[in-house]
Amino acid sequence: MTDVIERNVHDRLSRVIDPELGKSITDLGMIVGIEAVPRDVIDSGRSIVDVTVKVELTVEGCPLTQTIIDKINEAVTSYPAAKLVPHIDVASMSQSKLTGLVNDLKAERKQNPFTKPGTKTRIFAIASGKGGVGKSSVTANLAATFAALGYDTAAIDADIYGFSLPALFGTHDHPTNLNGMLMPVTSWGVKLISIGMFAGADRAILWRGPRLQRSLEQFLSDVWWGEPDVLLLDLAPGTGDMAISVAQALPNAELVVVTTPQPSASDVAVRAGLVALQVPMKVRGVIENMSYYEHNGEKLRIFGEGGGRRVSEQLTKDLKHDVPLLGTLPLEPEVRIDGEAGRPVVLNDDGTLADTPLAAEFKSIAEQLMK
C-alpha cells in the first residue's frame, strides 16, 4: 500500500507549480523523497498514513517557501483513498544542483522570451506625452485588474528615472538571484521588476542611449518571467530613448496612451502616440485619466473635457487605423490614498476586484485590450 501511496503523492505533487519559475516542483527536482508510514488506526473507514515529503528549494530563505509548503500540504491531504498526514522536510539545493537547474532554465530561454515565435504574451506599453497625468497609477491598477481577472500578469517599471511601481504595489522586496538569473517580485498577483528594487536606486540615474537600452534588455532577458498572459511596461513620459528601446526590443508591443482632458496634455499625448510612425509599434488605444470629480452626484470637469476623444480621433486620422478611447477614469482621492498605502485601488484587501465604478472601468479597459 505504501508504494501505491508514494507514487500517487508524487503524481499529485507534479501538479504543484513553483510560483516563481512557473514549472512543476517535481520537474524542477525539488521533491527528493516521499515516505509513507501507515498507522495502526482507522478513521471513518480510512487508513491513517504519515507521509514525509523531502523538499529542496532553490535558495535558503526563499520568500515563497510557505506558499510552496501550503500547496504540498493541500496536495497530500486531499488524497481520497486514505487519510494522509503530511510532514514537510524543507532544505535548500546544493550549489551544484542549483547551478545545473539555472543552466537548464537559461538554455531553455536563451534570449528575450517575448519575441519568440508563438509567444502567447500580450504586451502593452503604457505611455504619456507628459508627466503628471497618472500614467503609473493607471499601469499599476490595470496590471492589478488583469491579475484579479485571472491572467498571469507581469509588469516592468521602464520609467528608469521616475520608477514608482514598487511603492504603488507596496513591496520593498528584492528580486531573488539564482546564480545570475533574477526572479521577479510578486505583489498583488503581479510579477514586478523595477530599478527601484536594487541597491542604490535612491540615487539619481543619468543613463542614456545604449546603457538605457541595456537596462531594458536585462529586465527582459535576465529575469525569469515564465510565460505570462500579459506584460505591461510603465514607460517614462515623452517619446525619448526608452520608447525607442521598447519598440526595438519588443516589436510586438502595443502602445496605450494616457492623457488628461485639457489641451495642454492631450496635444502632447498625440505626439507620444505618433512615435508609432517612426517605430514598429501599434497604438492600441487611449485612456483619459482624471476625467471628472464626482461631488454630490454632479460630475465636475476640473481639467476641462474631451482630451481623450481628441487624442483618439487625431491618432486615428494620422495613423490610419482605429485608435479607440478605451475608457475615462474619474479623479478620486482613493487612487492616491490606496496607492500610497501600497494597494492598487481596484482591489479589495484579499486581492479580488473591488465592486466599484472605477474597478468596473478598469475591467472594461482590460477586456477591450485582450480582444
Automatic annotation (TrEMBL):
The keyword Lipoprotein is assigned to this record: no
Keywords in alphabetical order: ATP-binding, Hydrolase, Iron, Iron-sulfur, Metal-binding, Nucleotide-binding
Family annotation (Gene3D superfamilies): Fe-S cluster assembly (FSCA), P-loop containing nucleotide triphosphate hydrolases
GO biological process: iron-sulfur cluster assembly
Keyword Metal-binding tagged: yes
PANTHER family documented for this protein: IRON-SULFUR PROTEIN NUBPL (PTHR42961:SF2)
Physiological role: Binds and transfers iron-sulfur (Fe-S) clusters to target apoproteins. Can hydrolyze ATP.
Identification of the protein by name: Iron-sulfur cluster carrier protein
Species in which this protein is naturally found: Bifidobacterium primatium
Lineage, highest ranks first: Bacteria, Bacillati, Actinomycetota, Actinomycetes, Bifidobacteriales
